[in-house]
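User: Please run a holo structure prediction.
Assistant: Happy to. Please share the sequence and the ligand.
User: Here you go; the ligand is pyridoxal-5'-phosphate.
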Amino acid sequence: MTVGSLRTPAILIDRATALRNLDRMQAEAIANGIRLRPHAKTHKSPLVARWQVDRGAIGICCAKLGEAEVFADAGIENIRIPYPLHPANADRLVALSNRTHLSFIVDHPAVAKQWSEALVRRARQIDVLVKIDVGFHRCGIDPAAAGAVDMIRMVASLPGLRLKGLLSHAGHAYHAHTEDELKAMADTEARTMRELADRCRSAGVKIEEISAGATPPARFSITQKGFTEYRPGNYVYFDRTQVALGAATFDDCALTVLATVVSKPAPDRVIFDSGSKTLTNDGARGFDAAPGHGVVIDHPDLLIERLSEEHAIVKATKGSTKLEPGDRVRIIPNHSCVVSNLVDQAWLVDGDGAEALPIAARGRIT
Ligand SMILES: Cc1ncc(COP(=O)(O)O)c(C=O)c1O
């Protein structure tokens, strides 16, 4: 296929750019003596996971069991699920652990005990890490709480779980306002994790691994002392938000949406066929969060002002646009991870050549 012959809207992945992004992060990890375990929720593609593992990644992360099942079926041999799974999923988890080296997280004492009981009943012991809240305030235990070390020691004592270490995710880095603030978040995360690991070790609890990971602070985090593993996800494709957070340039953005102009209601307004079911309603974040629903490549004057489900309403901010119905554009979305989850198939692009890229784990949200 050629890019020109694709039906739109279509999700394009520039192969050379994606591979360069993978190579760079892998090289950084190797240079800093840290294992890379990319989060596959961005690409949801076994082919891209294979690229990552072939470059030296220790394995991958998945957000949900359903995602992990797809990657295990595709032969990925080491999968970590940094998500607070519920023990009602014990049968699925055990079945999955027969097909791949599996680990997951716990962050709640009662849930950890239920997991241990469920696994003991099935004569199994599975690797876990305790999730630590380093400022995102989503899940994870409070490292400053009086009972933090006791909780981790309790997990270490559970017969169905094999405690490997501590895990954090600096998701609050997406809300940093400046480069300095972002760096401070990375420093604080590393210090918090090191200190907690030291307190655990002093209390006799073995901590082999300290796992962190997020794309915005990666450039500051990967060089920190103490981390044994880094889990970036978005870095394979990047997006407008990562550019606004200083983590990438527009040239690094591998995922674009190919869209067609389907109407021109006014000289200064055109309609693209990529609405919220393609671009998603995620707004841009970043130091200087830009308005609109993505960047139209080569058309800096265009602002994707509003989205309906199937329409992007685009304003020419300098008065009028030369675009006419039938013309095609490429858009860098605000958030690439959610865009690739909306299609069963993206297109791997080399110049004008396009090859189907199945998004095999798309929609695996259970
Ligand atoms: C637990 C966890 N680890 C790692 C990541 C990867 O973060 P990013 O996509 O910013 O690289 C995520 C992203 O959602 C996450 O939730």
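The mean pLDDT is 97.
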